[in-house]
Design a protein that fits this description.
- With 612 residues, this protein is of the alpha/beta class.
- The protein has 21 helices and 26 strands.
- Helix 7 runs antiparallel to helix 16 and helix 16 runs parallel beside helix 21.
- The chain binds fructose -6-phosphate (F6R).
């Protein structure tokens, strides 16, 4: 969603801001803008891509050593030049960029209109900068104190940066429920909504906490305060991120790079966490609270989208291997449902970004009610990583393509390890099965590599499917969530309508859709339900549907009845989702490219959904 970048120091701000906005493009946006201070405050804003902003910025004088930039994903007001950020105060002296939503903006706006303010845009953000201006003038406050006062009046989420043309020596930023990182360079500071615009300049960062305000000055000093004006000790961290992780590295798209990275990222998620020969699994997050985790009466997963699909797979695994009851909740529903929770519950949040607003809110409710919170997160230092009592990073590295791929398989690795560790401790899984699955896990990176080596076969199938308008995905048992994930991948990047179903549910409605125009993808790798899946495929064929089946190597039954089959290497059934999802990711990718869609930044989507 929206992205923020800001700079103060000795360098020219504009090139840093522009480069930063390009790094933030992956988050999803529909307009962009920049303000810099030189002899006055210069602001350019444009609907569309950063490249379009660049082409109008060239006409303005944007030199100066302090500035702010923004990519906007529209919430209040359509995507256009006027609603784009930065927004200015009524007298044009202050400029603000904002991520998040000010929920009570309408009431504040009316009060400000009554006091003579006029507004140019439909946004909640413009209301906030006018409120700051109002306090600055009527209460004769400094920018810092006016901003602090304004923040005590607003309800909602914000990450903001403000500059004042009358004081080009400082920039002020603040956050609540929307991430903000301060980068500390030599006599220069960077502020951004994630570390991607900062990493090429410095590795020293401070992740701001909720209701913290940072004042960064061009004399090389900075101060962090809370909203009650109390100075906070900065927790300076070293970024473990390399610039080439943010580049396409020769691939046409980030999504393709991330699909092909999976042999490595899956291995990274396992590194140091298991040893099949010695028969152990280690998950650091467990140790601190192992008693409560091992004796949890119930596990509740909260997540959204692809991460929710991972949770569904975890439900099969944990119930099967560790015999603990599991519930899987859409975070957006859980948070508004008055859930019944106790100290005996373990609530696990799964999130690539670690910033998903609904997942965070679900955790806050679970925390209030005494449950133990565990985070399975990719982005280090993210809000979910910090609010949870304990957790495990998935170590997939930055995921830039909007469609989640490598984060999904790395989440599965951690969840499988979790199920195995719990099962082993609780004595609900035999030692032989425990070791067999560990050996199986160790073999996954090489098997994923084998699948990727057959990408041409997938390309061929994609060519056959690319002009269809609809698709069905069917799976059984642990591969039912893979069907959901396959359908989500296809619809989000190729705009083909797709639905995932448990294969047996087909007869209860979706079968009515099947005719010669309906491609049906069937994940048919489950040994335990092989005959039943074969029957489902017969039912589709009897109605002239086009069947594309993902099968285990050596399967001779299904290849006789399906129109196309794609073989994945043999693996224990509990581990099949790690392999069966790969051809489906590739298929969506190739179809999207063939249809001329924007693979990495599909329309209307944001990488990190920081508003509900
Ligand atoms: C789908 C996708 C989204 C995310 C969802 C949750 O490809 O990327 O469905 O999975 O928005 O995001 P995180 O995992 O960051 O909480």
């Amino acid at each position: 969603m929206c992205g923020i970048v800001a700079y103060i120091g000795e360098k020219q701000a504009y090139p840093i801001l522009l480069e930063g906005l390009k790094r933030l493009e992956y988050r999803g946006y529909d307009s962009a803008g920049i303000s810099v201070i030189n002899s006055s405050l210069q602001t350019v804003k444009k609907k569309g891509k950063v490249s379009e902003l660049e082409s109008v910025a060239i006409l303005s004088d944007l030199h100066g050593n302090i500035g702010i930039g923004h990519t906007r994903w529209a919430t209040h007001g359509k995507p256009d030049d006027l609603n784009a950020h930065p927004h200015l105060s009524g007298d044009g002296s202050l400029s603000l960029v904002h991520n998040g939503i000010i929920e009570n903006y309408a009431t504040i706006k009316q009060a400000l209109i009554d006091r003579g303010h006029t507004f140019k845009s439909e946004t909640d953000t413009e209301v906030l900068i006018h409120l700051i201006e109002e306090y600055k003038k009527t209460d004769a406050l400094s920018l810092e104190h006016a901003l602090t006062k304004a923040l005590t009046k607003v309800v909602g989420a914000y990450a903001i940066v403000v500059i004042d043309k009358n004081n080009p020596n400082e920039l002020i930023a603040a956050r609540k429920s929307s991430p903000l990182v301060l980068g500390i360079g030599d006599n220069e500071f960077f502020i951004a909504s994630d570390a991607s615009p900062i990493i090429q300049y410095t590795k020293k960062v401070v992740y701001l906490n909720d209701e913290e305000i940072v004042i960064a000055k061009n004399d090389g000093t900075f101060t962090i305060k809370n909203i009650h004006n109390e100075i906070q000790e900065p927790d300076i961290k070293e970024l473990d991120l390399k610039i080439d992780q943010l580049e396409k590295g020769g691939y046409d798209h980030f999504m393709l790079k991330e699909i092909f990275e999976q042999p490595t990222t899956i291995a990274e998620s396992m590194r140091g966490r298991l040893n099949a020969n010695e028969g152990w699994v280690s998950l650091g997050g467990f140790d601190q609270f192992q008693n409560r985790i091992h004796h949890a009466k119930r596990i509740i997963f909260v997540a959204c989208g692809t991460s929710w699909h991972s949770a569904l797979i975890a439900e099969y695994l944990i119930e099967d291997l560790a015999r603990i009851p599991v519930e899987v909740e859409y975070a957006s529903e859980f948070r508004y449902r008055n859930p019944i929770l106790s100290e005996d519950d373990l609530v696990i949040a799964i999130s690539q970004s670690g910033e998903t607003a609904d997942t965070l809110a679900a955790l806050e409710i679970a925390k209030e009610r005494g449950a133990l919170l565990y985070g399975i997160v990719n982005v280090v230092g993210s809000s979910i990583a910090r609010i949870t009592d304990c957790g495990s990073y998935i170590h997939a590295g930055p995921e830039i393509g909007v469609a989640s791929t490598k984060a999904f398989t790395s989440q599965l690795v951690v969840l499988i390890l979790m199920a195995l560790k719990l099962g082993n401790k609780r004595g609900t899984i035999s030692d032989a099965k425990f070791r067999e699955l560990l050996y199986g896990l160790e073999s996954v990176p090489a098997k994923v590599q084998e699948i990727l080596a057959q990408s041409d076969k997938i390309k061929y199938i994609a060519q056959e499917i690319k002009d269809r308008q609809n698709a069905l995905y069917l799976g059984r048992g642990i591969n039912f969530p893979v069907a959901l994930e396959g359908a989500l991948k296809l619809k989000e990047i190729s705009y083909i309508h797709a639905e995932g179903y448990p294969a047996a549910e087909m007869k209860h409605g979706p079968i009515a859709l099947i005719d010669e125009n309906m491609p049906v993808f069937v994940i048919a790798t489950n040994a335990s339900a092989h005959e039943k899946i074969a029957s489902n495929i017969q039912e589709v064929k009897a109605r002239k549907g086009l069947v594309i089946a993902i099968v285990s190597e050596g399967d001779t039954t299904i290849s006789k009845i399906a129109d196309y089959t794609f073989e994945i290497p043999y693996i224990e059934e509990q581990l099949t989702p790690l392999l069966s999802v790969i051809p489906l990711q590739l298929l969506s990718y190739y179809i999207s490219v063939m249809r001329g869609c924007n693979v990495d930044q599909p329309r209307n989507l944001a990488k990190s959904v920081t508003v509900e």
